[in-house]
Design goal:
The complex is a heterodimer of chains A (119) and B (173). Chain A is mainly beta and 119 residues long. In chain A, 3% of the residues lie in helices and 39% in strands. Helix content of chain B is 17%, strand content 32%. Classes of the chains: A mainly beta (119), B alpha+beta (173). Chain A: Heterodimer of 2 subunits, IMP1A/B and IMP12.
């Protein structure tokens, strides 16, 4: 999630209410239970929700080819901001909305980075 | 004055009981209602599998334990309750047939597939009327909300929900 979040050591405040009401959408940074290992939590940004078409470059270091995928109902497409070093929906596909744990509200540490996470 | 203080005491007791109840429900055990006959005859048994007419007009209520969510270690034949991958507000109860790495047979297209890492293959006991992995695909383990261990209502059906291992439908060569 670089450069939005540092590689390590950031402390964030996560609110766990809006995803239960369905109020989490594109542009939000969310905590998600990994579809590859349910014991791990990953932090990514929602790019599209059910019904959207998402277009992404296939291998950002390998030229300009891109793919378009339609996100199925009840799923979200998540991507890390650091496209070159992120394992996300481009690898494991759209994830069910039920795996979302919460929305990142703001950062409290380090003090230079205090404040809300940018869109 | 004493009426106000007794009201305050009642309010404190309600909040305490509420907090304890929510903690127990989230971390240890909860009760869930079984809807539909997709798990017949283990849960909500039906007399006629095609028409779906039920033995009893009342739904089963089951005990769901949440201790399994610590390490996400499940066994073949466990009955679990999970959030639907197509609608996060719905929950389904089905039996785990395949765990990550297993090969499962999809009989209607005569094919087999490997259950991916972090996912499981679930099927209802009543295959004629069950919406499960045969149409939804493998379910991420992270969607599982608990394991069904006992039926607690109606009283005539109180008992353990047994772990039944179904023979895998993969053809052996």
């Amino acid at each position: 999630m670089f450069p939005t979040l540092n590689l390590a050591g950031d402390v964030l405040i996560v609110e766990r209410v809006s995803h239960r009401r369905g109020k989490v959408g594109p542009g939000d940074v969310v905590l998600v239970k990994s579809p590859v290992d349910p014991r791990k939590t990953i932090t990514k940004r929602i790019i599209g929700v059910g019904g959207d078409w998402v277009t992404f470059p296939v291998g950002p270091g390998n030229g300009d080819r891109s793919r378009s995928v339609m996100v199925p109902k009840g799923h979200v497409w998540i991507q890390g901001d650091n496209m070159y070093a992120s394992t996300d929906s481009r690898n494991f596909g759209p994830v069910p909305y039920g795996l979302i744990l919460g929305k990142v509200f703001c950062r409290v540490w380090p003090p230079e980075g205090f404040g809300s996470i940018s869109h | 004055m004493s009426a106000r203080s007794s009201l305050w005491n009642t309010a404190k007791k309600c909040v305490t009981i509420g907090l304890i109840g929510v903690t127990v429900k989230d971390r240890y055990v909860s009760i869930a209602a079984v809807r539909g006959g997709s798990m017949s005859p283990s849960l909500n048994p039906v007399t006629d599998e095609v028409s779906g007419s039920r033995v009893s007009t009342f739904d089963d209520y089951v005990l769901v334990e949440k201790f399994c969510l610590g390490r996400y270690r499940f066994s073949h034949g466990d009955v679990v309750i999970f959030t639907s991958p197509t609608n996060h507000k719905e929950r389904h109860i089905k039996r785990i047939i395949g765990l990550p790495g297993d090969w499962v047979g999809i009989s209607h297209i005569d094919d087999v597939m490997r259950v991916p890492e972090g996912h499981c293959w679930v099927e209802g006991d009543n295959l004629l009327s069950s919406l499960d992995s045969r149409s939804l695909g493998p379910i991420p383990l992270g969607l599982i909300r608990g394991r069904v261990t006992h039926v607690v209502w109606p009283p005539s059906r109180i008992g353990r929900v047994k772990r039944e291992i179904r023979q895998p439908t993969v053809p052996s060569y």
